[in-house]
Amino acid sequence: MESERHTSHSSANHKRHRIEWPTIGLMVLCYGLWIFAGLYLYPSMPILALLLMALAVAFHSSLQHEALHGHPTRNGTINELLVSVPLGMFYPFRRYKHLHLKHHADERLTDPYDDPESYFRALGDWKKLPKPLKILLNWNNTLVGRVIIGPALMVAGFLISEFKLVSGGERKTRNAWVLHLLGLIPMLVVVWALFDIPLWIYTLTAAYWGLSIIAIRTYCEHQWSERPDGRTIIVEKSPLALLFLNNNLHFVHHKRPTAPWYDLPQIYDEQRDEWQRMNGGYVFRNYFEILRAYAFRKKQEVVHPVLRREPATARAFRPRRHGISMQGGSTLPIPAEPPKD
Question: Which intervals hold domain Fatty acid desaturase (predicted)?
Answer without folding.
Answer: 47-283
